[in-house]
Amino acid sequence: MLPRAFFPIFLHNIVQTNCGGAVSMVAKSRKNRPDISYRVEKIILKAVIIGVLLLISFQAIMLNETARVFLNYATRLEGGSMEESGIISPEGKLVLRLENLDKYPQALLLVNGEPVASFENAEIEVNIRNNDLIEIDATKVDDDYLYISIVGVSDNVISPSIGYRVKARNKIQLFSRVKLK
Question: Does the reported pTM lie above 0.85?
Answer without folding.
Answer: no
